[in-house]
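Shipment paperwork, digital attachment
Item: protein structure file
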Amino acid sequence: MELLRNIPLARYTTWGVGGPADFFVEPANERELVEALNFAEEHGLEIFFIGSGSNLLVHDDGFRGMVVRMNLLNGISIDGTKVTVQAGVKLPRLARITVDMGLSGLEELAGIPGTVGGAIVQNAGAYGREIGELVNWIEIYGDAGVERYRSDALKFLYRKTILPSEGPILRVQLELKKGVVERIRSRMRELLIDRHRKQPRGRTAGSVFKNPKDAHPAGWLLDKAGVKRLKVGGAEYSRIHANFIVNLGDATASDIFRLIQIGKRRVLEQFGIELETEVVMMGDFDGPV
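Attachment content:
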């Protein structure tokens, strides 16, 4: 296990912002992951697990603890329609592999640039599909070691999963369906084209806010509240989709966080709806940014 100090986290997020982590480790296998967890426990360090950093805002001051990046844990095993993957596997890669195997189920999720572990934690979804619908079981490293939980022991909510253990997700088994390769591939290509047409390119972190229940989508509310194209420093609410904030090149986490606060305030003032962030925040955003 290679334990690194004061590693800038901006390079590990799709927004490209954020300060350093006191400790940083990328375990190459589960043994190294356990070593990292033991080190953190022995030294009283808070732990934050990350994958692709595609839904993450890191404070400009960084993180006072240990960041564990799971991307090297990326094994895939396929047995019929059962697909067992480690937490660091990227969803787009998994979707391509399963399509080539004639397995259907991940087409709608192929454009989500996160890892399987992160997708499970947030019950990632798109085009009416949520990853929780596909789960047979997950394995978590808990107090008793590796613990396996069937899907009926998990509670999948909108952009959130209630897990029975606080440890890191190690492995997930998904149940897919047999299909015709060309039909599955065509469907995935169609959805990716639609996604690229509707969403901005560049440095973003996906949807900033969750869609509120029984109301217009967050993007519609933000657009009507007048935040589209609004800039703070080097960050801007997208001109294409108001629920995206784009790093124009020199944004800071402070710029992005201020835009988030402005968007929340304007929607609350105009519609009486308090938006909830879909983006995960790392660091002390309760204090000044």
